[in-house]
Amino acid sequence: MALVLGIESSCDETAVALVDSDRCIVAQRIASQDAEHAPFGGVVPEIAARAHAERLAPMIDGVLTDANIALTDCDAIAATAGPGLIGGVMVGLVSAKALAMATDIPLIAVNHLEGHALSPRLADESIDFPYALLLVSGGHCQILRVEGVGQYRRLATTIDDALGEAFDKTAKILKLGFPGGPAVERKAMEGNPRAVPLPRPMVGSGEPHFSFAGLKSAVLRAHESGRYEVADIAASFQQAAVDCVTDRLRIALRSMTSVDTLVVAGGVAANATVRGALEKLAADHGMRFAAPPPALCTDNAAMIAWAGIERLGQSDPLDISARPRWPLDPEAEPVRGAGVKA
Ligand code: KG4
Ligand code: ZN
């Protein structure tokens, strides 16, 4: 049995985990930086990098102690090498390099998005390639055909905001606090999803891409009009977002041949309304639906360690660079109107 130490530091979660090839999360620690970033209503990169630097080493030590394992018992050290906030990524990757150099254990530089993309296979051993993946996080919103480890075909991406970003901006407009996604979900439970007329950007378009900037602006206008309850706006926003996602997936699935499983991953996959709608969509298409448990949807190191297990046997040079951008499918055509999103 193989054992991999995983390190995640690409955004505002410092996380360390030990995962074995039997899909057991042997130990894990996760430190959220919500309290540090909350006063600013969003993640401040400099604060994030400093917090990772302060916390990571004791957390690595803690995880090894929790599991009663020596670092030298590990078969590889896997660390997020991008994409993400570069200061934080560097903290995690440099730490992993130092440990790998000191112990002669192979280093595996993991693409954070690959961590999300393979996380359903950590949660459920019956998920085989290929599968259709909706990857929805704070920085990304993509539909991919996952053909194997390292083999991703991107069918759709966002031309402006990611879905998690839209939740976060909506939370900010509605003053629901930080982090935004769970706050919007909670508020939406008290509201009527049909109370506020909101647009469904891109719905009906023949290309499966996403756009959420117009929806966010409509939320702002609805709020400023003073005509609607906050809970109704939250619920109507969430419904509009779900309608966009299901419509876009319907289009993408048309061109995805020989795929019988629909998987959702990334922070927004923790949202129960999103999961429910996708489960129904999969059933309508005669597909199986899979979503990792919510704690494996939001950023964590178990998924990074698992990606390391999937890549076991490979190793990266100790001079590998951290990458602020790192698309899963480098061949994907750029989308007209797309901004900086990979
Ligand atoms: O995957 P993740 O933890 O970090 C990134 O890689 O970006 O995703 C974070 C995003 C945030 O935008 C957050 O608001 C959103 O996922 N999120 C949610 C929920 N939990 C996290 N969005 C909607 N509903 C949730 N329950
Ligand atoms: Zn993530």
How would you sum up this structure, described in words?
The protein is an alpha/beta fold and 342 residues long. It folds into two domains: 3-117 and 296-310, Nucleotidyltransferase, domain 5; 128-292, ATPase, nucleotide binding domain (Nucleotidyltransferase, domain 5, 2-Layer Sandwich), CATH 3.30.420.40. Helices cover 41% and strands 18% of the residues. The chain is built from eleven helices and ten strands. The protein has helices at 34-37, 45-67, 86-103, 112-123, 163-173, 180-188, 213-225, 230-254, 272-284, 294-297, 302-310; strands at 3-8, 13-20, 25-32, 76-82, 107-111, 131-136, 141-148, 151-156, 261-265, 288-290. The chain has a five-stranded mixed β-sheet, with helices on both faces. A five-stranded mixed β-sheet has the order 8-7-6-9-10, sandwiched between helices. Strand 2 and strand 3 form a beta hairpin. Helix 4 (112-123) crosses helix 11 and helix 8 (230-254) packs parallel to helix 9. The radius of gyration is 20 Å and the shape is globular. It starts with a strand and ends in a 32-residue tail after the last helix. The structure holds 5'-O-[(R)-(carboxyoxy)(hydroxy)phosphoryl]adenosine and zinc ion (ZN). Residues 11, 137-139, 164-165, 167-168, 179-182, 185, 266-268, 270-271, 298-299 line the site of 5'-O-[(R)-(carboxyoxy)(hydroxy)phosphoryl]adenosine. Zinc ion binds next to helix 4.
